[in-house]
Amino acid sequence: MLALVGAVTACTSTAMGGQAGLPTSGHLTTSAPKAPPAVRDGLKLAVENGRQSPGTVIAGTGDAVYNYGPAIMLDGGKVRAWWCSQMGVAQPNGDDILYSEGPSADGPFSGAQPVFSGSNTSFDAMHTCDPSLIKINGTYYMYYTGASRDNHANGSSVGVATSSDGLSWTRANGGQAILGTSGDVIRENAYGAGQQAAVYLDGWVYLLFTDTTGYAAATNGAGQYVLRSKDPLFTAGVEALGPQGFKPVPSTKQPRTRSVVEAFSADWMWIEAASAFAIAHSTDAGTTVTFWNKEFTRHPYEPVVIPGPWREGPGLVRTPEGHAPIHAGGPCDKVGLDVLRSTVYGGSGAPTNISHFGIDALGLNGCATPEEARVLNGFSVPSPERTADVVVDGKVVRFERGSAAAKFASGVIGWRPQIVDSFKVSARVPAGVPAVVGPDGAAGLLLNGKLFVIPAIEIATLNSSEVTVVTQDQWDRYERLLN
Fold first, then answer.
1. Residue 209 to residue 253: CA distance in whole angstroms
2. Over 80: is that where the pLDDT of 11 sits?
3. Residue 354 contacts by C-beta under 8 Å, 6 or more apart in sequence?
């Protein structure tokens, strides 16, 4: 909601009552192998590796006196951030969406630049705020809250813009809102609809959002509703989450009959290894993460808390699809929960000083299905033959030399998930098999006369393979194995 603080206007800040992820870099986990239960229901997760940036990691420049509501994406080897602020150089006067990037969630981040501002017309004439981003087939979709004036009167609505680079944006849907208030109950809190968060999953865009007029909200308007559609603009095929699950609705303006968490300004992501949604929202203890299964019929895990100060909604560190990053230290059992969030009220009385907080949650008992086990792709695990298996696209490449397997793999875990036993052994790599190098430096091992391409010649060295340099014609004529 627009909260006027002195001469500064904030689109969704303190009057709402506000509201952390990068996995650890270690390769070996000491977790014991365990078979996932048939149903994950209310399991208690352990937490470890609490972390916090030493200070502010994201702030506006110039006259940007408040900074909050960040959207964080791991994209192209960088941590990219978009958030709500206000800079005088960006017109019209109102909330703007700023952008910055850095090498990690702790920064250092580049200088802030405005990338999206009010339209001067339509529902977002003055304010654009609360960004949430996903990337589908090379196109960025930014869902944002817009308002045409300071006095909301339930006037906040959700719009969407598209981009090829995340910096230059074009308003979609003809510049009109894709979602507004339902008007089920008119409450004292007159914010309206917004504070949305998007996840892309199995061809669907899932949209979590606030609507202070929703039927299922608390008396103060707190509540989080879910719509989904295979159309990123939500113009067709919309389904709403209600008491009986997802049901088709004729439009996005339908009674809000079910809230998944009593909160404002939440963010969420999908944990592939456990087939679970994780919703980050602020509580007195810090940022609470609440878990739901895909059908929203049960909580697979008890909530966990990322402690530390907060003043406005958290932004989870997510993949471009809005999924949890795969944990390098145990992809089936651990998930990194990292958020960036405002920590203080600044001189304007609005939230600012965005910092990084995080924990690792463990005990997921994940990888129970082939779909969940996709997180194992590229990982090396122990083999029952005292060798090492590397998972490649749902199959196993069995290396005689563990050191060669570790170099080939993207990560190593110290125990064997049960589901790997069901994977076919598609190739075996004995020690000493011949290796070849092409004129461009590409390398491969020859397995029964077929070329198994490897990412680095060091793998052949570790495998005690004799290396032969071949011509481009010879390289091209080899039949490929798994490539």
1. 13
2. no
3. 56, 57, 58, 59, 67, 68, 70, 83, 340, 341, 342, 343
CA distance 295 to 297: 5
Question: Does residue 408 sit in helix, strand or coil?
Answer: helix
Of the chain, the end-to-end C-alpha distance in Å amounts to: 53
Could you please report the per-residue DSSP string of 33-70? P-PPPSS--SBPPEEEEEEE-SS--B---TT----EEE
- Could you tell me if 345 and 309 are in contact, meaning their C-beta atoms sit under 8 angstroms apart? no
Q: What is the pTM of this model?
A: 0.91
Structure tokens at 158: 């959700």
Question: Distance (Å, rounded) from C-alpha 264 to C-alpha 281?
Answer: 7
Please state whether the peptide bond connecting residue 92 to the residue before it is cis, i.e. omega within 30 degrees of 0: yes
Q: Which residues contact 262 (CB under 8 A, 6 or more apart)?
A: 218, 222, 223, 224
DSSP lists the bridge partners of residue 229 as 205
- Residue 236: phi and psi, rounded to 5, are -155, 155
Could you give the CA distance from residue 336 to residue 48 in angstroms, rounded to a whole number?
10
CA atoms within 13 A on the CB side of 134: 25
Name the 3-class secondary structure at 142: strand
The total number of residues shown for the chain amounts to 483
* Between residues 23 and 65, the one the model is more confident about: 65
Residue with tokens 């990412």: 455
Residue identified by tokens 């813009």 is: 161
CB neighbours of residue 3 within 10 Å: 19
66, 27, 22: which is closest to 378 by C-alpha? Answer: 27
Q: For residue 29, what pLDDT band results from cuts at 50, 70 and 90?
A: very low
Handedness of CA 236, 237, 241, 243 (dihedral sign): positive
Strand partners, 240: 227, 247
Amino acid at 163: S
Alpha helices in 99-195 (DSSP H): none
- Judge contact between 322 and 270, C-beta under 8 A: yes
Kindly indicate the confidence band of residue 62, based on its pLDDT and cuts at 50, 70 and 90: confident
SS3 label, residue 236: coil
Q: Tell me, what's the pLDDT at 346?
A: 87
What 3-state class would DSSP assign to 175?
helix
Specify whether the CB–CB gap between 361 and 304 falls below 8 A.
Answer: yes
Return left, alpha or beta for 5; rule: phi > 0 is left, psi -120 to 50 is alpha, else beta.
beta
Q: Which of 169-173, 272-276, 345-349, 437-441 has the lowest mean pLDDT?
A: 345-349
Tens of pLDDT, residues 351-363: 999 999 999 999 9
Backbone CA torsion sign across 263, 267, 269, 274: negative
